[in-house]
């Protein structure tokens, strides 16, 4: 198994100025490299405290690349619907060169109605725009004199500069939420997969992973390339009661800002997002203790979290774990403690 830190900010100016957030996050990046974590990752969101301090993963990861030499850099995920593929492919190729090939590119559809409204895009077009943008970037990275003529973009012939450091291009990962067909498509196309197990029942996650892995194998892709990233909230303390109390507090803060971000789903419907109209109610009814008991969050002592991860490995196999240690806005010192405890007392059990 591999392990990394997923930077998912859930703060605004009232709680923490942006410059302080980025200073702390980049200090944590350096600590992650020192402690032997395998990757760092960050999201793309806008406007809300739910992820809004990260409107451009490439900018953050470029700063992270300058402070590290080994750790992998992962977008989790960039949203091709919101950026022209010529711009997105070029930015990512720059980052791949700056980092000497440490980049993995996660692509996502986005799901917040307010973001689509601000970019003046129809949510019902999100899936075709996602696939079109991803495939355009892949072609721009892999080929020269590219001509593109689709429903959304027309350009060429053009040859992207710089060429990616990795050939033919960086590893591609696809973010999926609750739609099994998205997992199946990712496997068929030979991409990796990004999932958040906390939003689905264990059986549903297992179903999606089975579809993904079967599609990957049936398509004849190289064995071992069916890479799966699972994201989990994480808070560790050597005192179990403290871990539970603080973990609950930061989980509730995260849920509060998420409810604000998804509020538009109370009145919106989209064919491309079946079931999302219930998302606000689901978040409001979230049960922290149940989430811990069902291994949907990694909170506790190092020994307790080690046992949770052993169960997760039995359920899902040797996946890559992305730890959301900063969500809920804990103090930097507590996040650094969590990172150290996990690296020193949990990870060695899975190497």
From TrEMBL:
InterPro entries: Bact_Lucif_Oxidored (IPR050766), Luciferase-like_dom (IPR011251), Luciferase-like_sf (IPR036661)
Keywords attached to this entry: Monooxygenase, Oxidoreductase
EC number: 1.-.-.-
Boundaries of every Luciferase-like domain copy: 1-316
KW Oxidoreductase (keyword) present: yes
Gene Ontology MF annotations: oxidoreductase activity
Name of this protein: LLM class flavin-dependent oxidoreductase
Organism of this sequence: Streptomyces noboritoensis
